[in-house]
Amino acid sequence: MSDQQQDVGTSSELPYEHSRKGAWADFAGTFAGVMLIITSCFGILQGLAAVGNDKLYPEVADYLYEFDLSAWGWIHTVLGLLGIFVGVGILMRRGWGQITGVMVAGLSMVANFAFIPYYPFWAMTIIAIDALIVWALCTQYANRA
């Protein structure tokens, strides 16, 4: 057996990048990056709609997180822009992208939770997608460990 064959090992000891676990982690990261970019684009559109037309969303009476709709619009727009930046970082496999992606998706979940009275079905849909993003990024981290 040559030295080169000894370094590679048996077929069950494939390098991480060529293993099933590595392929799954790669898919989870790609999924999370793409979904974060898509939901961030939705957040930007949602935010710009609220900034551009305060009458677009219904009035909510006596709600704990009641802000002016323009403020909600700016919150969603800024989170959306940040999410696109982080999503691209995830797709480029930058080290900071994974942890920052979990944080941005978590902030998006909180912002959409507070936005539920204004647009409940949409906010809950985005919360569910953000939960999938957090799951995919955490799964990628667990598979790489």
From TrEMBL:
Residues 30-140 form the DUF7144 domain. The chain crosses the membrane at residues 27-51, 71-92, 99-116, 122-142. Keywords: Membrane, Transmembrane, Transmembrane helix. It comes from the Bacteria. InterPro entries: DUF7144 (IPR055568). It holds the Pfam family DUF7144. This is DUF7144 domain-containing protein. It comes from Nocardioides guangzhouensis.
